[in-house]
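Sample 3 of the quickstart, ligand zinc ion:
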Amino acid sequence: MGQRSSTDCDRFRGYVSASLDGELSEVEGARLDAHLGLCAACRAYAVDVRRTARVLREAPLEDLDFPIVLPSRRLAVARRLQVAAAAAALVVTVGLSAVVGAVGGGGGSGPSTNAAASSAQPVKLRFTEDELKMLYEASSARDRLTVHARLAL
Ligand SMILES: [Zn+2]
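Result:
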């Protein structure tokens, strides 16, 4: 540990931040103290960050004249799940229709049914990507509308 690299300094500066939140283990704290004893730049950084954090924590809370609405994390996850579920439903629908179409149009002979089903695979994948793109566009358009509606309230 004789040589210090900027990667080390980056890591220990992260430790400084984590220590402010009480998220450092005993070993990490000891390593941080050892590094700060050797590295003047990180020591100065730690002093500055700790002073800034103390000022911020001691500052009185201010009431705002307007509400701030942040998008719900749960809502974003739910939207992603909706898109994934819609995509999965499309895959199942297209896959079933390909199989049903192959069985219905194949005349019932075994080899021709297998050939039709295997040739339907690339079409199913391309269609899913297009549908996903459409769903993402629709979802982001809905997000923009939601933001405008919230801002108007
Ligand atoms: Zn350092």
